[in-house]
Structure formats: C-alpha cells, structure tokens
C-alpha cells in the first residue's frame, strides 16, 4: 500500500484511513461549516454558547468510538436531541448535506463510507423520534443509505432500491441501532 504524498493545497489530501487526528480535523471542519450556515448556525450557537470546545471534543470521541472502535463515548444521542425544539426536516437535510460533503472532501471513498453510513442511520433514528414513527424518511436518504450499504459490503454499485433496507411496511420503525456501535460484548 503506497503512502499518499500530501499535495500542498488549501484542503488536505483525502485520507485513506480514519485516525484520531483526522477525525478531530473532520469535526472541526464540519462544525465550522455548521456555525457559518444560516439555517443551522443559529441553533448551534444558542445551544452551545460557551460550550463549543467541549462539544468538539465530545464529537471527536463519538466518531472515534464509532469508526475506530475506541468505545470512549459515553452519552445518549437521542436524549441530547430531545430538548431541541423547532427542528424540521430541512434541518436534517442541511446537517446531512454538510456532513456528507465534508466527509467526502476529506476521506477516500472506503474511509468516507465508515462515517456516512452511521450518520445517515442515526439521522433516520433522530428524525423518526422527532417527527413520529410514521414520518417518511426522504427517498434521497434511503437511496444513499442503500448504496452505502452495498459499498460497505463490497458489492458493485447498481440500481439502488429499498430492497436493501429493513422492512418498514405499514409505517413500522426501522430497527435502528442508535449508537451505531456493534455490541459484541466487550
Ligand atoms: C437537525 C440536525 C441536528 C441538529 C440541529 C443537532 C444539534 C445538536 C446539538 C445542539 C447538540 C448539543 C447538545 C448539547 O450538548 O446540549 C448535539 C449533540 C450531538 N449530536 Fe446532533 N444535531 C443534529 C443531527 C445530528 C446527527 C444526524 C447526528 C449523527 C451523528 C448527531 C450527533 C450528535 C451527537 C453524538 C451529539 C452529542 C450527544 C451527547 O451529548 O452525548 N446530531 N446535536
């Protein structure tokens, strides 16, 4: 496996492997975009006033737990979002578009998928909690999640359908694992 020679430019060369250091950079870059965003910025700045540093550190631990398996994150993602009022579908769409774009800019595809799939899965779970179990997750999110699952399994890209997704006919909730961490008992 050849090491990438970092080409000096305004943005870093895409990383082939997640590491604690590049996860911290991802978190910083993502929340900088969130902070600058006219839709999301005001929500985060009012909720996190005076607590940004702690939030960035917590989110680095969160993603490291998910992607590197460090298991240091102690928290409850659902509970953290429960008090947030006035959150609408457009906020999730914006959050996801900024996050997925930031990840895509900073990681090679195989590494990027490791962030994207849990982000979409957790976003689904948060949306169902916020908007009700019969809320219809936007098709773009379903299609993207299905294609990421295929990628993760090493299957060729194909015509994506909902066949890959858990059955949720009649508005049944997904059996979503909220933390995204596989519980293998250790
Ligand atoms: C509309 C979209 C979202 C908004 C407005 C939002 C907002 C927030 C805010 C304000 C906090 C800080 C809570 C606090 O400390 O008081 C937070 C925490 C957090 N968010 Fe989000 N969030 C969104 C979507 C997501 C998604 C899709 C994920 C999935 C990865 C996520 C993961 C987290 C995590 C892990 C925490 C830390 C939870 C803890 O305290 O342990 N958020 N979010």
Explain what this protein looks like in three dimensions.
The chain is mainly alpha-helical and 186 residues long. The protein has a domain at 20-71 and 87-154: Globin-like (Orthogonal Bundle), CATH 1.10.490.10. The chain is 54% helix and 0% strand. It contains 7 helices and no strands. It has helices at 20-36, 41-47, 52-68, 77-81, 89-106, 109-131, 139-152. The longest helix has 23 residues, at 109-131. The chain binds protoporphyrin IX containing FE (HEM). Protoporphyrin IX containing FE is lined by residues 40, 43-44, 47-48, 55, 58, 62, 75, 77, 80-81, 84, 87, 91-92, 95, 119, 122-123, 126. Protoporphyrin IX containing FE binds next to helix 2, helix 3, helix 4, helix 5 and helix 6.
Q: Output the CATH homologous superfamily of the domain at 20-71 and 87-154.
A: Globins
Order of helices and strands: HHHHHHH
Average pLDDT works out at: 84
Main sheet, how many strands, which sense, barrel? none
**Proportion of residues in β-strands:** under 5%
CATH architecture of the domain at 20-71 and 87-154: Orthogonal Bundle
Bound molecules: protoporphyrin IX containing FE
- Tally of helical segments: 7
Protein name: Globin
Pfam family, one: Bac_globin
Region (Disordered): 155-186
GO molecular function: heme binding; metal ion binding; oxygen binding
